[in-house]
Design goal:
three-stranded antiparallel sheet, alpha/beta, six-stranded parallel sheet
């Protein structure tokens, strides 16, 4: 996560992860590529390298992966086809034990959204144990909402291992109530982002990049050259801290009885 890996860097990364010395001995359960601009092309490079490895050595390069985190990776249209082909419909299922698929904070097109949903519910694909899929903040529009309703109807008729579907951060309008009405009982669908309450530690996810991360040098000066203007006289002032693309903000109320 946040390693500034671009599309070209995926060639080196795939060569490393698919090398016999690494893949035959590593016990990698989480593949976290979040906050790297690998884009659709980079995802295709990785999946193709893993597939080639499986064909050459008659074994999967990363067979124990249970979490595939692709949040804020610049994915757009082609990601849906790559995911469906290499994780569900292809002759080789790269991650047979995959349980969590995070596609949040990507500008995923409605067609790509539909392709992934169809892969999750299709009887023709490989047996899947995916339990959680995150599409939050993916700029989904009205057409994607129609695809979502169709998928929920299908999941009601044909049960699936899927237990949680996150589509928060989208403007589906007043008809968003239909999601809860159509969702089967075994499936939790998150549609709206909860409002943080005062006094709670509420996770606030944002798009992280080399420009948005507030890196500091030992002198306390942010990387953008601006001095830290936080009020040091208030020891309870909460300062957001970036952690792997997420930051936790403490909402506090100053104690009025204490001398300033």
């Amino acid at each position: 996560s946040m390693c500034q890996i671009g599309t070209e860097g995926c060639y080196s990364l795939s060569a490393l992860l698919a090398s016999p010395k690494i893949s035959h001995t590593a016990c990698i359960t989480t593949l976290d590529l979040s906050n790297n601009t690998i884009k659709d092309e980079g995802l295709g490079i990785l999946f193709q390298a893993f597939t080639q490895h499986a064909q050459d050595y008659q074994r999967l390069p990363l067979p124990l992966v249970r979490k595939l985190l692709l949040s804020n990776c610049g994915l757009y249209h082609g990601c849906g086809l790559f995911i469906a082909l290499h994780l569900f419909f292809g002759e080789i299922c790269l991650f047979p034990d995959l349980e969590v698929l995070d596609l949040s904070y990507n500008s995923i097109t409605p067609d790509a959204f539909r392709t992934v949903l169809e892969a999750l519910t299709s009887k023709c694909g490989a047996a899947t144990v995916v339990k959680v899929v995150d599409f939050s903040e993916c700029h989904l529009g009205p057409l994607a909402f129609v695809y979502l309703l169709d998928t929920l109807k299908q999941l009601t008729e044909t049960p699936s291992p899927l237990r949680k579907l996150i589509v928060s951060g989208h403007h589906f309008g007043a008809e968003s109530e239909k999601v809860q009405q159509l969702a089967p009982r075994y499936l939790t669908v998150e549609v709206q982002v909860p409002t943080p309450k005062e006094g709670d530690l509420t996770p606030i996810r944002r798009r992280a990049s080399r420009h948005s991360i507030n890196q500091r040098d030992p002198s306390g000066t942010p990387s953008n050259g601006n001095r830290n203007t936080s009020n040091s006289s208030n020891p309870k002032a909460a300062t957001p801290t970036a952690r792997g693309g997420s930051e936790y903000v403490a909402h506090t109320t100053p104690h009025r009885g204490r001398a300033q």
